Amino acid sequence: MPRRKPEPEKPRKVRETIVRKRECGLCADWVTIDFKQPDLLKKFMTERGKILSRKYTGNCARHQRALTKAIKRARVMLMVR
Known about the structure:
Elements (H helix, E strand, L loop, with lengths): L24 H5 L8 H5 L11 H4 L3 H16 L5
């Protein structure tokens, strides 16, 4: 039985992704983060009380760190659950 020649591989399609720089919403609005603002803090938490990551919130590193501290302080003071 004759052997078949292997077919040449098709060139793979490369997806080009457009990376958009998102501006931190807290930087744009000049918001000060304080643990006494439970309404603001709840926007950056899940229903179960976990802190959302930068990937989902779009915060810059500085504001994400400040949010984390504020949320943890508010938890201790029982302002946020």
